[in-house]
Each structure stands twice: as structure tokens, then as C-alpha cells.
């Protein structure tokens, strides 16, 4: 039986930009960093304070993934924040633009979307 989500894995193309975004801006902690010589890539393991893990793979020439509204497959990743306004203020000071904040009509939680350095949609979600 599944007990919890263990990790998310994403592919980026710029190690410095991705570490700045996930580690420095979003607060993940790097717990492992491995160069995969045969694949000419990096695998970086990160954890967040709430216990979730992120595997970040860096391939300099990774192809673009086509994304269309409401297409099949992974839609976005979402991270819970304790203060959405403070988080957005910090991100804005660091050049990260966010969509307008919305309210979930079912839960009344506030949320918005930003993009990581490779354009992956990232939801920031503040529970009611």
C-alpha cells in the first residue's frame, strides 16, 4: 500500500540556475550531488523542510517538452507555503514573476503559479 509521495523528479538544463531557484529561492536543501560521467549529466537530491524530496537531473541539451493547456500527463508541481505574500515578495525581489493570486473555490486556499528556470509550472499553495 502507498503511504506517501516520496519524491518528484524533474529535468533541467542549467545547474546553476536550477540550484539558485530550488535551493536559494524555494529553500530546498541539497543532500547529494552526483556527476554521471557516462550520461554527461548531474543528479542532485534535494529535500524540503516538510519532508518531501526532489530529484533534479541536469542535461545541457535536454529536448523541450511540448505542453498544451489541459494536455495529458504531469500538469504541474505544487509546494505548500506558510505565507504566500511573503514568499511572492521574496521571489519578486529576485526576478521571479508570478501569475495573479487566485482562490481555490473548493478549499478557499490562495495559490499562484511561477515557472522554474526551464519553464516548468510550479504552484505555490497556501492552505486556508
UniProtKB/TrEMBL annotation:
Gene3D superfamilies per record: 2,3-Dihydroxybiphenyl 1,2-Dioxygenase, domain 1
Cytoplasm among keywords: no
Keywords: Lyase, Metal-binding
Record InterPro entries: Glyas_Bleomycin-R_OHBP_Dase (IPR029068), Glyas_Fos-R_dOase_dom (IPR004360), MMCE/EMCE_epimerase (IPR051785), VOC_core (IPR037523), YwkD-like_dom (IPR037478)
Chain ranges of the VOC domain: 4-127
A GO MF label: metal ion binding
GO biological process: L-methylmalonyl-CoA metabolic process
Record Pfam families: Glyoxalase
Protein name (record): Lyase
Organism encoding this protein: Endozoicomonas elysicola
Amino acid at each position: 500500500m502507498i503511504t506517501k509521495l516520496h519524491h518528484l523528479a524533474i529535468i533541467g538544463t542549467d545547474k546553476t540556475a536550477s540550484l539558485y531557484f530550488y535551493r536559494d529561492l524555494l529553500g530546498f536543501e541539497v543532500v547529494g550531488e552526483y556527476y554521471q560521467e557516462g550520461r554527461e549529466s548531474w543528479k542532485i537530491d534535494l529535500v524540503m523542510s516538510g519532508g518531501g524530496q526532489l530529484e533534479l537531473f541536469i542535461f545541457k541539451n535536454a529536448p523541450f517538452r511540448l505542453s498544451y493547456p489541459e494536455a495529458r500527463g504531469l500538469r504541474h508541481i505544487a509546494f505548500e507555503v506558510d505565507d504566500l505574500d511573503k514568499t511572492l515578495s521574496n521571489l519578486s525581489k529576485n526576478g521571479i514573476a508570478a501569475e495573479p493570486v487566485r482562490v481555490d473555490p473548493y478549499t478557499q486556499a490562495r495559490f499562484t503559479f511561477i515557472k522554474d528556470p526551464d519553464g516548468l509550472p510550479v504552484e505555490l499553495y497556501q492552505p486556508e
